[in-house]
Specification:
The protein has about 170 residues and is α+β, with helices and mostly antiparallel strands. It is built from 5 helices and 4 strands; from the N terminus they run H-E-E-H-E-E-H-H-H. The protein has one domain: Beta-Lactamase (2-Layer Sandwich).
Length: about 170
């Protein structure tokens, strides 16, 4: 299990990747919620905001980040990302019965014994930020990210974000 200090370091790494994403010309959004889960039981180790999250979006993005990771965990080792079980029309637990469904989206990935999830950006950007974060944390290699990107239908942000983070280092 990660120590409190390690969880904070992981959040800092995710924040640094998000910061680089926010400099890309095609970026949308300003922040969101980052969640770390671990192990067979998908124990939640951290859920925190990164970047700037509008007050009226905080609950939504937090619930969606939690839901993405929980849903990915249900699929055991058959799915590498929550994009594989997305359902944009689905109402999720925690959402009020009023308004449009929040949907089930991509943005969570499996990396070693962890599930990393993010919500607050477009879903493929959420996913790319988590993939690059996993690489920077040593949870997977760039080649693993490329294979994951292919399995998830070619993430349009992944390579550009990875190389931008490398240049910023």
């Amino acid at each position: 299990m990660l120590t409190i200090a390690e969880r904070c370091r992981w959040a800092e790494v995710a924040q640094s990747v998000l910061d680089v994403y926010l400099t890309l010309p095609e970026h949308k959004g300003t922040g969101g919620y980052f969640t770390i889960r671990q192990g067979e039981l998908h124990e939640m180790l951290l859920c925190t905001s990164l970047g700037e999250v509008l007050i009226d979006k905080q609950v939504k993005y937090m619930i969606l980040s939690l839901e993405k990771g929980e849903r990915l965990g249900v699929y055991s080792s058959t799915h590498v990302g929550s994009y594989q079980s997305r359902d944009p029309e689905q109402r999720i637990i925690g959402q009020s019965d009023f308004g449009d469904p929040w949907g089930k989206w991509g943005g969570a990935i499996r990396a070693k014994d962890f599930i990393l999830s993010f919500s607050g950006l477009p879903e493929r950007a959420d996913e790319a930020v988590m993939m690059v974060t996993a690489i920077k944390l040593g949870l997977m290699e760039f080649e693993d990210g490329m294979m994951m990107s292919q399995a998830l239908g070619v993430n349009p942000f992944f390579q550009d974000l990875f190389y931008a983070v490398e240049r910023a280092a």
